[in-house]
Specification:
The protein has 455 residues and is an alpha/beta fold. The chain has two domains: 215 residues, Rossmann fold, CATH 3.40.50; 139 residues, NAD(P)-binding Rossmann-like Domain (Rossmann fold), CATH 3.40.50.720. The chain is built from 19 helices and 14 strands. The strands form three sheets. A six-stranded parallel sheet has the order 3-2-1-4-5-6, sandwiched between helices. The chain has a six-stranded parallel sheet with strand order 11-10-9-12-13-14. Helix 19 links the parallel strand 13 and strand 14. The termini are far apart. It binds uridine-5'-diphosphate-glucuronic acid (UGA). Uridine-5'-diphosphate-glucuronic acid binds next to helix 9 and helix 11. Pathway: Nucleotide-sugar biosynthesis; UDP-alpha-D-glucuronate biosynthesis; UDP-alpha-D-glucuronate from UDP-alpha-D-glucose: step 1/1. Belongs to the UDP-glucose/GDP-mannose dehydrogenase family. It is an enzyme of class 1 (oxidoreductase). GO terms for molecular function: NAD binding; UDP-glucose 6-dehydrogenase activity.
Length: 455
């Protein structure tokens, strides 16, 4: 099938690679010339495990252009995967989605049938709006074209985006029109039946079963996306709330997580207490869900609370540091990890960045390290903030002379540190393990003043 994808961000590019790999002829479209240049050289503008070798291996099955109108004309399926930035009031801004829909309609020609797929995370009702925009554009130019619109939300995680695309838990198609359901079922067939040869760089895990296909209406599909992210965010916030109480009563949150996670009704994942959630999805999507609620004068105290707990969590870490050090003003604090989670250079809404800003505001000097996100992180700080930050090239360098160390992102390399060597470089060996990756007893035996989250 011929597929055009508008937008080559995390979602668009991963989907383009996936679909080309399973045999489709894919065109990725972007307006960013720098990105296109990189992609045409087989280089990925995003950091994703396995993406570059695949980009190179796909050859002519995957190409990139800046001309959406022309690329849409020739396609059977056009996927819209452009950004939906957060507006001041929390709503997701769909102006780029609508603009893409208009351009796609301008490219459509009579005598062909098109399926337009909304992949971006969009407010409830956007699919209907996209269908309207396309119809209006066609009417304006007097064209009669058969088209169908479908919602096809993605559930991929940054850093594991390709893995999640090749081996999804489920595929959701929201469409009223049989044409769209038929086209998308055919497009995803190799994934649904797992008939492709797994790429060397993204092997299939043992025991992975076939992913179910959920076909539903577009509104429900749009809601599935928001509800999934909000639920995962609140699962984590719930554990962070329990972690606070665990500290008061002397329980260990990692034991509590193990104990409740084995209940199949709860499940073991997304129960890790720590600095809380960040990234481009949970913060934005929970805000957008609340914005939808407000539109209907419908209160959503649970989603609201998940967000409140997430912010509170950061202040709590700071307070912990204040009380351990008897104040942070004039102190030097090391922070390991800037990315919002490991295996990505994404620092959007990273708890680490927020905490560093609070530390600086309270008069601390901060020495930071991250294996991947240093360059990107620099832009997140103002010039005066940067003056209070030492960007260090190793975690050991970051620890030099520090009076406390905050482990903010659970990178694999931080789990393998020479903790003795690290400690020797510090002025005061205070360890605040913001992701609970170290063994408290072992660290205390080594002479660290250790504190985690909820243990
Ligand atoms: C999230 C969802 O997991 C994806 O399913 C979804 O497709 C994506 O948003 C999206 O809407 O595009 P992502 O933002 O890449 O994916 O990140 P996650 O791996 O889910 O982690 C989110 C945050 O939760 C991170 O800051 C992570 O550190 C934190 N987290 C995760 C915890 O604090 N505890 C946990 O147990 C798990």
């Amino acid at each position: 099938m011929r597929i055009t994808i508008a937008g080559t961000g995390y979602v668009g590019l991963t989907t383009a690679v996936l679909l080309a790999y399973i045999g489709h002829d894919v065109t990725g479209v972007d307006i960013d010339e720098r990105k296109l240049e990189l992609l045409n050289e087989g280089k990925s503008p995003i950091h994703e495990a396995g993406i570059e070798p695949l980009l190179i291996s796909l050859g002519s099955r995957l190409h990139f252009t800046n001309d959406l109108r022309a690329a849409a004309r020739e396609a059977d399926i056009i996927m819209i995967a452009v950004g939906t930035p957060e507006k001041m009031n929390g709503e997701a801004d769909t102006q780029y989605v609508e603009a893409a829909a208009r351009t796609v309609a301008e490219g459509m020609v009579e005598g062909r049938a098109y399926t337009i797929v909304v992949k971006s995370t969009v407010p409830i009702g956007t699919n209907r709006r996209v269908a309207h925009v396309i119809q209006r554009t066609l009417d304006e130019s007097g064209k009669a074209v058969r088209f169908a619109v479908a919602s096809n939300p993605e559930f991929l995680r940054e850093g594991l985006a390709l893995y999640d695309s090749f081996y999804p838990d489920r595929i959701v198609i929201g469409a009223e029109d049989e044409l769209a359901v038929d086209m998308l079922s055919r497009m995803y067939r190799p994934i649904l039946e797992q008939t492709f040869d797994p790429p060397d760089v993204i092997p299939r895990r043992e025991g992975y079963g076939l992913p179910p296909l959920i076909t539903t209406d577009a509104i429900s599909a749009e809601m599935i996306k928001y509800a999934a992210n909000a639920y995962l965010a609140l699962k984590i916030s719930f554990m962070n709330e329990i972690a606070g109480l665990a500290e008061k009563v002397g329980a260990d949150i990692t034991e509590v997580a193990r104990g409740i996670g084995l209940d199949t009704r709860i499940g073991p994942r997304y129960l890790a207490a720590g600095l809380g959630w960040g990234g481009s999805c949970f913060p934005k999507d929970t805000a957008a869900l609340l914005a939808v609620g407000r539109e209907y004068h419908y209160e959503m105290p649970i989603v609201e609370a998940a967000r409140t707990v997430n912010v509170l969590n950061r202040t709590r870490i700071l307070e912990k540091m204040q009380s351990l050090l008897k104040g942070v003003r004039g102190r030097t604090i090391a922070v390991l990890g800037l990315a919002f989670k490991p295996d990505t250079d994404d620092i959007r809404e990273s708890p680490s960045i927020a905490i560093i800003k609070m530390l600086i505001e309270r008069g601390a000097h901060v020495r930071v390290h991250d294996p991947l996100a240093m360059e990107r992180a620099k832009d997140a700080f103002s010039a005066s903030e940067q003056a209070e930050i030492t960007f260090s090239s190793t975690p050991y360098e970051a620890a030099e002379g520090a009076e406390a160390l905050l482990l903010a992102t659970e990178w694999k390399m931080y789990k393998e540190l020479d903790l003795d060597g690290l400690k020797k470089r510090m002025r005061i060996p205070v360890m605040i393990d913001g992701r609970n990756i170290y063994d408290p007893e072992k660290l205390r035996a080594m002479g660290w003043i250790y504190t985690g989250v909820g243990r």
